Amino acid sequence: MSKITFILNNKVVSTTQHPTVRLIDVLREEFDYTGVKEGCGEGECGACSVLLNDRLVNSCLVPLGTVHDQKIMTIEGLSETPQGKLLIESYSKEGAVQCGFCTPGMLMASHSLLNEIPNPTDLEIKIGLSGNLCRCTGYNMIVNAVRRASKEGVGLW
Amino acid sequence: MVDYFIPTTLIDTLEFINNNEAKIISGATDLMVQRKKGAEITPYFTKKPVFVFNIKELNFIKESYEHIHIGACTPVSDLLNHKGTPSLLRKSIEVMASPALRNLATLPGNIINASPAGDTLPILYILDASVKIETLNSNRIVKVKDVITGPRRTILNSNEMITEVIVPKEEFTKSDFVKVGGRKADAISKISFTYAVKIKENKIIDLRLAFGAVGPVIIRKEELEEKYTNIELSKFKELKQEIINDYRQYITPINDQRSNKEYRKKVALNLLGDFIDTL
Ligand SMILES: Cc1cc2nc3c(=O)[nH]c(=O)nc-3n(C[C@H](O)[C@H](O)[C@H](O)COP(=O)(O)OP(=O)(O)OC[C@H]3O[C@@H](n4cnc5c(N)ncnc54)[C@H](O)[C@@H]3O)c2cc1C
Ligand code: FES
Ligand code: FES
After folding, report:
1. A contacts of B54 (beta carbons < 8 Å)
2. What is this structure's pTM?
3. Coil, strand, or helix at residue A70?
4. What is the CATH number of the domain that holds A52?
5. What ligand has the least distance to the C-alpha of B131?
6. What is the whole-number distance in angstroms between the Cα of residue B82 and the centre of ligand 2?
7. B188 min Cα distance to partner chain A (Å)
8. Cβ(B170)–Cβ(B147) under 8 Å?
9. Cβ(A57) to ligand 2 under 6 A?
10. Is the pLDDT reported for residue B209 higher than 90?
11. CA B146, CA B124: separation in Å to the nearest integer?
12. Is the beta carbon of A128 within 6 A of some atom in ligand 2?
């Protein structure tokens, strides 16, 4: 049986699942990374966001075949990093989490945005998070949280 | 039995698609949604999938004196970060869904998906972009507008792959891409209008117009563009009604539309009228 191997949160893992299986399903069911959420299942809500080779992608759109020999990071991996820790703290200080369903995806998108633009304007934050839907917060607190992380995390990104 | 392939080189890919009934999967953003039978069910492919997204030699943006060459597996977000990207192309990519989607979506995927609402298509038509199509033993360069023959239909054979998109560098006096309607997902309700014009000494010396999502394919009529080229700007404006009438017959929103065809046709022609008024 052929195997698909990749680096998941800094560890080499492999799976015998078929390469057309969605990455989100493998992450949640086989590797138990349930911080990766399924909202829409079609690329529109961002709840399933992960990093593929350090870039934000929707894991519901990524077939397993695409990640072979590549690097994936989920919210579980991000939250172990200084950047992840600071983002989580900023989200909680700004009250940016209500039901929390969108939060893992929002954090991934926030991190990815700050990687590209360490000191974003509010507009750049909104564009950076434009693929992530939140039904609870009205977004303002989330934008504030990213701004706070950017200010407090000078040099981290 | 090998029922899929994850190549790392182009030559291996071409060999595989030559010897198998295969399906190229690039960013997979169209395929995963189209082939999905329901939430949490594995997308089902009838042909052997070939996962090309990470082929390094197909991920590049290179510039020559006259062209920009974009490797087939370059995600469109890279074009936003590249400073030599033609401004029209940049504009059409900026409106494509979200950053996460743009990190996966590719130009060949947009082309071969051949949706009349594909956002980069009117731009690729207007800029006279071409694609390099390769097989194991041959290659050919074809204009994007000649690749697409109808909604979801292209000239590509199953042993062929697009390896590169080639976009001529052009400077226009004025150009814009206007997209009307839902920002994402609701692709069929969109109307897009793209123009690029060169004006010299108050004369139109190059005119290019394209409409998206109001017909089975992108509408660009070179014979009409020629008809209205090499005329004075003031004269061009006077001809507004005639120009609109000339285009009217080609604006044919697709039949399976549930949205109001008449409205969409009217908006498309109004965009054309506005363009003429404000040129
Ligand atoms: C949530 C969401 C929002 C979207 N929003 C937009 C939008 O705003 N505007 C827009 O234009 N599109 C949009 N799309 C559609 C899609 O993202 C684009 O069409 C994208 O460019 C497809 O590229 P891909 O690499 O993901 O294609 P894939 O899904 O990998 O492939 C699409 C087709 O192209 C073929 N193909 C891909 N690469 C090659 C190649 N190199 N050679 C030969 N054949 C090839 C495949 O076999 C397949 O038939 C959206 C999609 C989703 C899911
Ligand atoms: S679940 Fe993937 S984007 Fe909504
Ligand atoms: S906090 Fe509930 S969806 Fe965002």
Report:
1. 66, 68-70
2. 0.96
3. coil
4. 3.10.20.30
5. 1
6. 28
7. 16
8. no
9. no
10. yes
11. 11
12. no
ipTM of the complex: 0.97
Per-residue tokens: A87 = 């983002």
Residue span of the structural domain in which B65 resides: 10-168
| Final residue before a domain boundary, out of B124, B146, B168 | B168
pLDDT exceeding 90 applies to what percent of chain B?
A: 81
CATH number, domain containing residue B119: 3.30.465.10
Which tens digit of pLDDT belongs to each residue from A12-63? 999 999 999 999 999 999 999 999 999 999 999 999 999 999 999 999 999 9
Cβ-nearest to B49 among A22, A25, A65: A65
Question: Same domain, yes or no, for A57 and A92?
Answer: no
Q: Provide residues of B within 8 Å CB-CB of chain A.
A: 4, 6, 8, 25, 27-29, 32-33, 36, 39-40, 42-45, 49, 51, 53-54, 75, 77, 97-101, 103-104, 184-185
Whether residue A157 is contained in a domain is answered as no
pLDDT in tens, A117-153: 999 999 999 999 999 999 999 999 999 999 999 999 9
Q: Domain range holding A114? A: 81-152
* Biggest CA-to-CA distance, chain A: 50
* Contact assessment for residue B7 and residue B50, using Cβ atoms and an 8 Å cutoff: yes
Tell me whether residue B1 is in a domain.
Answer: no
> What single-letter amino acid sits at B215?
G
Among B32, B49, B97, the residue with its CB nearest the CB of A131 is B97
Record: contact B100-A25, CB cut-off 8 A: no
Instruction: Please tell me whether residues B188 and B84 are part of one structural domain.
Output: no
Closest ligand by atom to A58 CA: 2
- Residue B34's identity, in one-letter code, is Q
Domain-located, residue B251 = yes
Span from the CA of A146 to the centroid of ligand 2 (angstroms): 21
Domain count, chain A: 2
pLDDT tens, B225-251?
A: 999 999 999 999 999 999 999 999 999
The count of structural domains within chain B is 2
Same domain? A8 vs A70: yes
Domain annotation covers residue B20: yes
